[in-house]
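Morning!

This is the sequence you dropped in the shared folder:
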Amino acid sequence: MDIQKQLTKSIAKLQKKSGDEKAATFLISHYYREIYCYVYKQTINKELAMDLTQEIFLLMLQSIESYDVSLSGFRTWLYRIATNKVTDYYRSSAFRSTQVLDLVEEDIEGEADFTLAIERKMELEQIIAYVNKLDVTRQKIFRLKIFGEYSFVEISQMMEMSESTVKTKYYATQKMIRTQFQGGV
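The structure's back. Tokens below.
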């Protein structure tokens, strides 16, 4: 059986009877790395990304009965959950009460490489902090385009708005970021 058929079968099983552990495990194992990477790119924190990814899959399992295949693909639906979860985290008091800055955990050879890695991480954190202050629609478009690597067509379908509106909001956000960081993006 090909992977797409297995995915479809697992989704159907979970929608029909809650608690099908084999189907849940298959879905999670298939999408875990992809969703984790998407979250990690936005948080730059391994533990936080793992926690949020776990919460995303719990939400997925809790709400899978409401998933409607005629409205969107499963991957699209899962990314919508992930985007909302990350946006909610950055709007939460948990985020405001913690420091995002952690030391780089990987072994980095040479002081110049270490310094460069820290500078990149700090720049990305500043950009993310800036984006987190924008309205939710701009945040979601930015996150899906930059971190999820979705096309404008895909984002417009996910957000149920015209492609031209998505493009306008994305490029305006990009311009705001460039202006804020004076060409540093």
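Headline: The radius of gyration is 18 Å.

More detail when I'm at my desk.
O.
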